[in-house]
């Protein structure tokens, strides 16, 4: 594709080559149609700078890493916005709803806003073959979550990215704006995260708690570096 149109290549050498990596059934077109997760390379076969999957795949294919069968459980929170005003779904325009408390996993037209989108997304993921394991209404009204996993290694990344794509398509059809912004509303309103549950084979075996504590210590030594890489607004 033309990488100069996406800011991924210069105009004088704009060709970007897609390498297919994962296939899912297409819930929108049905039949034999598929959705394909690809990563992107230069014509010379080098991964372009925004291709983070390439390095991740290298790590997960390392025999030492693969032998630990790393499990990931991803909890993706998101907020639905009214398109014309960029204000959460179910909120009075320019004003605020009642205090947080009754909305988390809530039911009823005065507590749950966007369940049809959440349910449609769940069904689309199941059809596609995504390893989705649940959904729920979140603490802030107009905010939802879905869970992917447990998935092993690079599969977790492929599945969460395809699930995000399906959610974008479904909110588009519904005429609602999707945001993954970690803090869409300032003040004492719940943020939206992408929580990552992780374990290795050694952690899941007897004595694994000591391995977990050591891993936490190692992570703490590079906490600021990790936060800086986790996206805007964190």
UniProtKB/TrEMBL annotation:
BP terms from Gene Ontology? glutamine biosynthetic process
Q: What is its EC number?
A: 6.3.1.2
Per UniProt, which keywords does this protein have?
ATP-binding, Chloroplast, Cytoplasm, Ligase, Nucleotide-binding, Plastid, Transit peptide
**What does the record give as the reaction this protein catalyses?**
L-glutamate + NH4(+) + ATP = L-glutamine + ADP + phosphate + H(+)
Where is it mainly found?
Answer: cytoplasm
GO cellular component term of the entry, any: chloroplast
Any GO MF annotation of the entry: glutamine synthetase activity
PROSITE patterns associated with the record: GLNA_1, GLNA_ATP, GS_BETA_GRASP, GS_CATALYTIC
Write down the top EC class of this protein: ligase
Question: What region holds the GS catalytic domain?
Answer: 49-234
Pfam families in alphabetical order: Gln-synt_C
**Entry's localization field:** Cytoplasm; Plastid, Chloroplast
Which named protein is this? Glutamine synthetase
What organism, scientifically named, is this protein from? Beta vulgaris subsp. vulgaris (Beet)
**Phylogenetic lineage:** Eukaryota, Viridiplantae, Streptophyta, Embryophyta, Tracheophyta
């Amino acid at each position: 594709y033309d990488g100069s149109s996406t800011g991924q290549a210069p105009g004088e050498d704009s060709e970007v080559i897609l390498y297919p990596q994962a296939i899912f059934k297409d819930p929108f077109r049905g039949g034999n149609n598929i959705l394909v997760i690809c990563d992107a390379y230069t014509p010379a076969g080098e991964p372009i700078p925004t291709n983070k999957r390439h390095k991740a795949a290298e790590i997960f294919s390392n025999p030492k890493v693969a032998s630990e069968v790393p499990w990931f459980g991803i909890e993706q929170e998101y907020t639905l916005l009214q398109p014309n005003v960029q204000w959460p779904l179910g909120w009075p325009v320019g004003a605020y709803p009642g205090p947080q408390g009754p909305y988390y996993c809530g039911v009823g037209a005065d507590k749950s806003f966007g369940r049809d989108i959440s349910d449609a997304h769940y069904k689309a993921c199941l059809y596609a073959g995504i390893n989705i394991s649940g959904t729920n209404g979140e603490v802030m009204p107009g905010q939802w979550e879905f869970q992917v996993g447990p998935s092993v290694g690079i599969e977790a990344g492929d599945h969460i990215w395809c699930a995000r794509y399906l959610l974008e398509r479904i909110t588009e059809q519904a005429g609602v704006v999707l945001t993954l912004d970690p803090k869409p509303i300032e003040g004492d309103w719940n943020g939206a995260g992408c929580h990552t549950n992780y374990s290795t084979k050694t952690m899941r075996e007897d004595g694994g708690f000591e391995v977990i504590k050591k891993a936490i210590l190692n992570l703490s030594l590079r906490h600021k570096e990790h936060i800086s890489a986790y996206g805007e607004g964190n």
